[in-house]
Design brief:
This protein has 111 residues and is an alpha+beta fold. The protein contains four helices and four strands, in the order H-E-H-E-E-H-H-E. The longest helix has 21 residues.
Length: 111
């Protein structure tokens, strides 16, 4: 694959683009890490069970930085992501995840 393909940035304004979101959380401490995992598992389960347009949604923890976790998600399009963001489980759990975190970094990719 040519390097140009890696460097291409999709136009997020175009309809029909898939969306990839990587949400990195740095837990405040070990107790917060355990609670982030519990709440993130609930978020993942609720999302996969009820949100149309979700392609992939999961949580992973860093093998080298114990307090770092990431929720990664792939959406069919912006409409699906917007509906997810308006869902009760999102509005209830995402602020809780943020409150347990010393740092949150969200990266969004369109493809």
């Amino acid at each position: 694959m040519a390097i140009e393909q890696f460097l291409q940035v999709a136009d997020p304004a175009k309809d029909g683009k898939r969306i990839r979101i990587n949400c990195h959380f740095t837990a405040k401490d070990e107790a917060a890490r355990a609670e982030i995992i519990a709440q993130a598992k609930e978020l993942v389960a609720a999302t996969l069970a009820s949100d149309a347009g979700v392609i992939e949604y999961d949580i992973v923890s860093s093998a080298t930085r114990p307090l770092e976790l990431m929720i990664y998600e792939t959406w069919k399009d912006q409409a699906a992501l917007d509906a997810h963001s308006a869902a009760d489980h999102f509005k209830r759990l995402v602020p809780a995840l943020s409150a347990l975190s010393a740092k949150v970094d969200v990266q969004t990719f369109y493809f």
